[in-house]
Write a structure and sequence with these properties.
eight-stranded parallel beta barrel, about 240 residues, 14 strands, two-stranded antiparallel sheet, 10 helices, single chain, globular, alpha/beta
Amino acid sequence: MRDEGLYKTRRFRDGNYVGDPINTIRIFNQKEVDELILLDIGAARQPKAVDLGYLREIASECFMPLSYGGGIRDADTAQKILSTGVERVIVNTGAHEQRDLVPTLTREFGSSSIIGSIDVAREGNGAAVFVAGGRRRVEGDPIDHCRRLEDMGVGEIMVNAIDRDGELCGYDIDLIERVCASVSVPIIACGGARSPDDFRAARAAGAQAMAAGAMFVFRGKHRAVLIQYTSADHVFGVA
């Protein structure tokens, strides 16, 4: 999400306009999507106030559970977002900048309402964690960050592979396996899905849920926008 439009990125860059959120969500309603994750790209990179009125309008059109992330850096903002009809908030940059943020949120709203998120990019033979919409590298291994989020009390962790975002090249199965073997909270795999076979591979690697964006909104080699959806279980749409 950027302002009042939906965009699908590639490697967190070059957002391709998909449509306005309300019309897009109506299509996802018709496709009987299980859940929807809405990420505000701009708010993740530069703090700004959440347009609660517009978010409330979006949530009122959403017939499936809706999670929202982007710019959440205090409990008051989280409370206002949850009051719009959003079921869960996603915290990424804020969890790194303020170590007491996630524990505060889980105490006030419960672990089931809080998803911790990490954005990971490959570096040589290893991997690094980035915040601020993939623009700032932070110290520490992805596994350590996931363990820290678990210790903070999040109900789930979304692991997003930056290099695979929008590339339709399959999930980073090695990363998913390592994370799932290291923490006990449910893991949402994100970044690279191209077909239900990728969902099966991520499930076999230990992920409890799989998120996909480009797979659901692009068609053909020219990536024409045509929203579609699979009937596979436990899949999240990402807009």
